[in-house]
From TrEMBL:
Segment forming the signal sequence: none
Superkingdom of source: Bacteria
InterPro entries the UniProt entry points to: Solute-binding_3/MltF_N
Positions of the Solute-binding protein family 3/N-terminal domain: 73-191
Protein name per Swiss-Prot or TrEMBL: Amino acid ABC transporter substrate-binding protein, PAAT family
UniProt-annotated stretches for the region Disordered: 33-64
Compositional bias per record (Low complexity), positions renumbered to this chain: 42-64
UniProt organism field: Tindallia californiensis
Cited PROSITE patterns: PROKAR_LIPOPROTEIN (PS51257)
Length: 285
């Protein structure tokens, strides 16, 4: 009987354990909820973007240049523009420009500069007028041409006591000699275009006075200039030499041309036209 009771108790306890185990397996454990999946981003352009707020440009527009803003540059190059014995600017070209300024009621100081500097300004800066400058094919589209101021002949000058050594009747003949020419002057540009070579038969100088000096020192045979023989004394005056010791070796007919007053490309057309009206210039043949 006792053994039977003990077996019954064991059956009951085993049954309870099975019931507890089954009940535990049916309980769902607490699992943290997954993070919400973010909504997919809309591709650009699928929604209307908010309109940008209107802005007002408060930057004042650049004022257009007026005729009073013009700078006028030239060089010391007789007889067209030069400093005379009284220290005043004079010359064929200068007088026409001065008369034009008076007609326009303008009080603009004309700056006398080395040619290379004046030439560079007229190429690189706005509202610059330059004279007296030869109008060539190479320069045609580099400037706005205003008016012709003078017709110009070009000469090769040599020492009088050496003129018998030369027989020059053309630029081709001159290639057998050495010529001094001013840097950036049309004579230098033309000689280069005609086949002259720097350091061979061409010596480029910063100004005309240096070319004169080279001839007197025997460093070159000629210097080339559009200064007339009657005005050569003004040209030589800046040196220690005597103009009477110079003579024309050849009148370079290939370079006969006109000297102009011209404006930089950045000069407004209405300003250029006002100067054209005020400086009629000379009639071209």
């Amino acid at each position: 009987m006792k053994r039977f009771f003990s077996r019954k108790v064991m059956v009951i306890m085993l049954s309870l354990l099975i019931i507890v185990f089954i009940a535990g397996c049916s309980v769902t454990p607490d699992v943290p909820a997954p993070d919400p999946v973010p909504a997919p981003e809309e591709s650009p352009g699928t929604t209307d973007a908010p309109e940008a707020a209107e802005t007002t440009d408060t930057t004042a527009p650049a004022a257009e240049a007026t005729i009073e803003d013009v700078r006028i540059v030239t060089e010391d190059y007789p007889p067209y523009n030069f400093i005379n014995e009284d220290g005043e600017l004079d010359g064929i070209g200068y007088r026409q420009v001065r008369d034009g300024l008076n007609q326009l009621n303008l009080d603009i100081e004309i700056e006398v500069l080395p040619w290379s500097r004046a030439y560079e300004m007229a190429q690189q800066e706005d509202n610059v007028l330059i004279f007296s400058m030869t109008r060539t094919e190479a320069r045609e589209n580099m400037f706005k041409w205003i008016s012709p101021l003078a017709q110009s002949d070009v000469y090769l000058y040599a020492l009088r006591d050496r003129i018998g050594e030369y027989d020059v009747n053309s630029l081709e003949d001159a290639k057998n000699h050495v010529i001094s020419a001013m840097q950036d002057d049309f004579t230098q540009e033309t000689l280069l275009a005609e086949g002259f070579e720097e350091g061979v038969n061409l010596s480029s100088t910063p100004d005309m006075a240096m070319g004169v000096t080279q001839v007197f020192r025997g460093q070159t045979d000629f210097f080339i200039s559009s200064s007339e023989p009657s005005d050569i004394a003004e040209l030589v005056r800046e040196t220690e030499y005597d103009a009477n010791d110079l003579v024309v070796a050849y009148n370079v007919e290939e370079m006969r041309s006109y000297l102009y007053i011209a404006a930089s490309m950045g000069t407004p057309d209405h300003i250029v036209q006002q100067f054209r009206d005020a400086i009629p210039g000379v009639e071209r043949e």
